[in-house]
Amino acid sequence: MSETETPAPVSNFLRDIVSADLTSGKHKEIVTRFPPEPNGYLHIGHAKAICINFGLVQEFGGRCHLRYDDTNPAKEEQEYIDAIEADVRWLGFDWGKHLYHASDYFEQLYQWAEHLIEKGMAYVDDQTPDEMRLNRGTLTEGGKPSPFRDRAVAENLDLFRRMKAGEFPNGARTLRAKIDMASGNINLRDPVLYRIIHTPHPRTGTTWCIFPMYDYAHGQSDALEHITHSLCTLEYDDHRPLYDWLLEHLPVPARPRQYEFARLNITYTILSKRHLTQFVRDGHVDGWDDPRMPTIAGMRRRGIPPEAIREFVKRAGVARANSVVDMAMFDAAVRDHLNKSASRYMGVLKPLKVVIENYPEGSSEELDAVNNPEDPAAGSRKVPFSRELYIEQDDFMENPPKKFFRLSPGTEVRLRYAYFITCRQAIKDAAGNVIELRCTYDPATKGGNAPDGRKVKATMHWVSATHAVNAEVRLYSTLFNRPDPGADGDPVKDLNPASLDVIEAKLEPALAARNGKDTVQFERLGYFVRDSKAKGLVFNRTVGLRDSFAKAT
Ligand code: ATP
Ligand code: MG
Questions:
Q1: pLDDT at 240 over 70
Q2: Under CATH, domain 344-468 is a member of which superfamily?
Q3: Would you say the CB of residue 273 lies under 6 angstroms from ligand 1?
Q4: DSSP letter string over 492-513?
């Protein structure tokens, strides 16, 4: 399974429902929607909802709408709207001409609210938010009816129209559905349908100062768009009776059905816009697209390809039971994709100088290096070799333990695409640190094989010191230092202080010359991508080559 994207769609209960509805003729085609609230950037949890909604339509035909749930102007911004569209497209999905907003329906929703008032099914409540909360009851005890619950229809209509006309301040009154204050389901205890917010709306300006609540706007928007399957996360399970109640009592043009699936949770990760907003606002990260953020924009900047996100969502599966997916599984999906697609280069993160004593001073040569062993079509490139090189500090040990096969005094190793070299001497500074190695090379081993058939136990990456380019490399680790951030309160105290390590690296010159935005592999080190915002030569580490969680936890 690690080789390719899983071929056939794995079955899940949503596919089964859709498939059965098409087979039975209940629906001729399916219509789904992805309904983000533009109050933050999309994260990998949203990617799951996007893949499910657009994915079902790709598989079964029909269409998927992008609909902004723009019902709270106090929290929503144009920046988020633009980012959401860019992110959905980048993930590989297209809503065609089906871009909608809950605000497109404000007039119709308002008319339907008056309809409910006229039928005696909604009333204007003058209780303060605190009084409403107090009277709502608890999980075990019913609520107390509002003293305004039995207002006459005419008075309700008059007050609601005056709310709309802007006569009252924020919070002074609400419109509530008149359902059942004794219901075991708190969502049915006269839920608020409209509230007053005197804040200009990005699309409707100051036309409206009353705004529908999500629960009121959502199902009716679904009906207006003839959504067949309205898919949302499990926390809306308890809202479904309200969703159905409203559709039942309003003259809507269609009867969508809501189905709930478990939200995506990942270890070491927070997927809540409220917290992500806080990290950005308080400067714990460098914006929404900080490569440590679980946002689509952050992942893109970290070099994670959209195919890997889609594949990860597929592997994580769709179910009704809540679960937490291991971060290692995400990294594995990223590696599996990049292993096939990424071009290979050489770079040294912690340089140790090597002088090849028998290589002629002042000369150099170009050696052939394979661009991608997994993809012969990717071809090869030239890598400069010279008398002075850099290797990785970790690839040398002066007094190696038994199983250390890389460079140490007297051992011979292969330099990838180049020659066998043997270490003759380690030069140290006054403090005793090794600062340079004196080595010799065997000219007969050009390309990395000895004509006499002798073997070496290690192949190491390197760069030519005279040709190398300097680059800043940003090594990212998890944003949190525990698998369940926020489990005992504020996740801010679980932020990993070592989540970013900035180093100066030496890279083969081809890495400075290429202007591709795609993620590459630094051989033996991991996957890296040019940072899309930095001016100089800066690379972000996308993911290491091996699972670091097994060791860490
Ligand atoms: P958050 O909890 O991060 O604030 P939200 O649910 O308030 O997210 P919306 O913009 O309302 O954010 O979400 C749009 C859609 O994405 C909804 O259908 C929601 O159920 C879905 N969604 C949000 N988070 C996840 C998640 N972690 N896994 C799966 N789907 C999610
Ligand atoms: Mg929401």
A1: yes
A2: Ribosomal Protein L25; Chain P (2.40.240.10)
A3: yes
A4: GGGB-TTSEEEEEEEE-THHHH
